[in-house]
Design goal:
single chain, UDP-N-acetylmuramoyl-L-alanine:D-glutamate ligase, 9-stranded mixed sheet, 4-stranded mixed sheet, 8 helices
Length: about 325
């Protein structure tokens, strides 16, 4: 019996530091400028395991919870790197599908100013199917991160399995689900207890320009809690007709990889521990604030709550649902 089973991506993340890469302003965007026709020295390389499933599991394990990952990787060097890292973190790999093919990976280019661009190769992740998932596990929670597979049968069937077997469920939807929009996803969301997405994703998924309106609408479709994160601007949470608006812990950010996973997994872990919503938001924000201070999605993960002298400002009010 697991406390948490996480379903989603498992990747090898490599950070490449380039002194000659600069961030240049563009029209409504920014661009990383790298000289061509030249040899560019990589000044430093850092390697980590990554992906939504392993990142969230790392938080749960850090808090002493028994957890397992469902994902698909290759029987190659990157796949073995991921398995070794999960074993070190006491995360079960028995539900991971190891197959012939290439393990997903990300190369993260870090410019001289510290700005980053992610280059993602999905590999075997995009071939994950229901046949790859052992729907016979026992767990208190099923936590699902973004899934690249365009057929949402995996999402629907795993959520149904979870609810039929008494599990609480968490969904952090990816681009496939987000692009289907709220009304098309409604039949799936009835199996979801907690949903979380960022503010831009909520605008795409729900359709309103206003965060509170998007949160209110999301709350109509899930069983318990809806969350919208806003990066350094904080988060909004809806639970039992209550709206919570929170800021963040201020910290020096050098990395954004895994920050969303850190917030949501620590939030859910606190709920599992019987904490109230405000305590859970505080736990999530504190974990994320630690993760963004170190490269990689896991090295900053903490297994504690902030000290008493660190307070998070949270405003509570009623929300019309």
């Amino acid at each position: 019996m697991f406390d948490f089973v996480t379903l989603g991506s498992a990747t090898k993340d490599t950070f490449l530091f380039l002194n000659k890469a600069l961030l240049k302003p563009g029209v409504n965007k920014h661009f990383l400028e790298i000289p061509t026709d030249k040899k560019i020295d990589v000044t430093k390389v850092l390697e980590f395991s990554g992906g939504s499933a392993t990142n969230s599991a790392a938080t749960f394990s850090a808090f002493g919870k028994k957890c397992a990952v469902i994902s698909k990787i290759g029987n190659d060097e990157y796949g073995r790197f991921i398995i070794d890292d999960l074993n070190k973190r006491k995360i079960s790999t028995e539900l991971i599908k190891v197959s012939s093919g290439e393990t997903p990976f990300s190369n993260i280019i870090v410019s001289s100013s510290g700005d980053m661009i992610l280059l993602i190769y999905r590999g075997l992740e995009s071939t994950l199917s229901l046949e790859d998932i052992q729907l016979n596990f026992e767990s208190k929670w099923l936590y699902i991160g973004p899934l690249p597979y365009k057929n949402i049968d995996i999402l629907t069937e795993t959520l149904k399995f979870a609810k039929e077997n008494g599990m609480k469920t968490v969904l952090n939807p990816g681009s496939v689900e987000l692009n289907l929009k709220l009304k098309k996803m409604a039949p799936v969301l009835k199996y979801v207890d907690i949903i979380s997405m960022n503010d831009d994703e909520a605008k795409t998924f729900v359709g309103y320009a206003n965060d509170v309106n998007n949160l209110s609408k999301l709350s109509e479709y899930v069983n318990e809690i809806a969350i919208i994160t806003k990066g350094e601007k904080g988060s909004l949470v809806s639970s039992k007709n209550n709206l919570y608006i929170a800021n963040t812990f201020k910290s020096k950010q050098i990395n954004f990889v895994g920050a969303g996973d850190a917030f949501l997994s620590a939030f859910v872990n606190a709920i599992d521990d019987g904490k109230d919503i405000e305590q859970s938001i505080t736990a999530g924000s504190f974990n994320a604030s630690n993760v963004i201070q170190k490269y990689g999605a896991k090295d900053g993960i903490t297994n504690r709550l902030p000290p008493d002298n660190m307070k998070l400002r949270i405003v509570k009010s009623k929300i019309s649902i």
